[in-house]
Specification:
Alpha-Beta Plaits, RraB_dom, 136 residues, 30% helix, alpha+beta, Regulator of ribonuclease activity B domain-containing protein, RraB-like_sf
Length: 136
């Protein structure tokens, strides 16, 4: 398979999406993509969480025990398309800045189907976390 650099540009997002496709993930199917914003202060995280809820976003908020940061995860059910991911990253980066937070990347479960597997074992998944621009 030859990479289409219009659809999968040579950057972190394009590389992750291309890797998902190469691994057999069907990118035409909607996935629940998780976008993260990190905060140093709980009060700012709470304010941002309320803002996102008013924007009708599905979120979770927790304190990372290792770093002490407050993390908001925004869950967006969408087809993993490059342009849409970039647009949402820009929006979440802007929102993070308004509340003294830092946008921290995206990730999703990739679903790979193998006809040879039994029905119970059809879903094989990996985490395509893009916070550091690398597949984990």
């Amino acid at each position: 398979m030859t990479r289409d650099y219009q659809q999968f540009p040579d950057d972190d997002n394009g590389n992750v999406l291309w890797q998902m496709l190469e691994d057999g993930d069907d990118l035409s199917v909607a996935h629940e993509i998780e976008y993260s914003i990190a905060f140093q202060h709980e009060e700012k995280a709470d304010q941002c969480a309320i803002y996102l809820l008013k924007e009708e976003q599905k979120i979770s908020l927790f304190e990372d025990e290792e770093s002490g940061e407050w993390i908001i995860t925004i869950y967006v059910y969408m087809e993993p398309e490059y342009a849409d991911i970039v647009d949402l990253e820009e929006w979440f980066t802007k929102i993070a800045g308004q509340f003294s937070g830092e946008y921290d990347g995206w990730g999703c479960m990739a679903y790979v189907y193998d006809d040879d597997l039994e029905e119970d074992d059809e879903d094989a998944a990996f985490d395509a976390e893009n916070a550091d621009g690398k597949l984990n």
